Amino acid sequence: MEHSLEQTQSSQESHETLTRLELLQQFKQAEAPKIEEPIIQLVVISLDGELYGIRILAVREILKIPHITRLPCAPDYILGVISVRGEVHVVVDLKRFLRLGASHMAEQSRIILVESGDLAAGLLIDTMVDIIHVPETSLLPLTDGSFSAIQQYMEGKLRWNDQLITLLQLETIIPNIVVDQA
After folding, report:
1. Could you tell me how far CA 179 lies from the centroid of its own chain?
2. Does residue 91 sit in helix, strand or coil?
3. CA distance 14 to 26
4. pTM, entire model
5. Residues 175, 116: Cα–Cα separation, whole Å
6. What is d(CA 179, CA 181) in angstroms, rounded to the nearest whole number?
7. Which residues on neighbouring strands pair with residue 54, listed in sequence order?
8. Fewer CB within 10 Å, N or C, the chain?
């Protein structure tokens, strides 16, 4: 009987010890300062089935394709201009600008009005896929050893839904498209 009483007391003591440890761990986790990782928001677009990201802070709006007024003697990647609420914006075939081929306007094609500093332009894209929030630390540097002409317009890559997204660097794209809007 004494042996049974000792086992019961020992079992109760170990249970109390475990409960105390669990409470201490919960208290530690509650007290631990939570370091919030910087989050970036991206508009994910598709060009020929490849995914690209544009920082949402650079996006003014996303439009169905309006009437585009052609410009004579413009570079082949400039489709023309559009008027949005009284403002005139140049429209660029983003695929052609990045030397990925020419775009074919379809029902799901869109124009993304983007801005960098005082400059703005419309980018023709195949489709808008999604708007995502990802930790900034998930952005990977470009690792391809060869330097292609379009890499100067890329900021990095990241994984999303088992796919690779190339983040476009609008700070270098827009000034090369829009020389002077004044």
Report:
1. 26
2. strand
3. 18
4. 0.73
5. 8
6. 7
7. 43
8. C
Which residue, chain included where needed, has tokens 């695929």?
95
- Phi–psi pair at 169, nearest 5 degrees: -105, 90
Q: In what order do the strands lie in the sheet with 59-63?
A: 59-63, 110-116, 119-125, 87-93, 78-84
Query: Could you name the CATH architecture of 39-177?
Result: Beta Barrel (2.40)
Q: In the 8-state DSSP scheme, what is residue 107? A: T
Each of the 182 residues of the chain gets a pLDDT tens digit; together they read 544 444 444 555 555 655 665 666 666 666 555 667 788 899 999 988 889 999 989 999 999 988 999 988 888 889 999 988 888 989 999 888 888 888 888 888 899 999 888 888 899 999 999 998 888 888 877 776 555 667 778 888 888 888 888 898 888 888 877 653 43
**What stretches of the chain adopt beta strand conformation (E)?**
39-47, 50-55, 59-63, 78-84, 87-93, 110-116, 119-125, 127-135, 154-160, 163-168
The encoded tokens of residue 84 equal: 């949005």
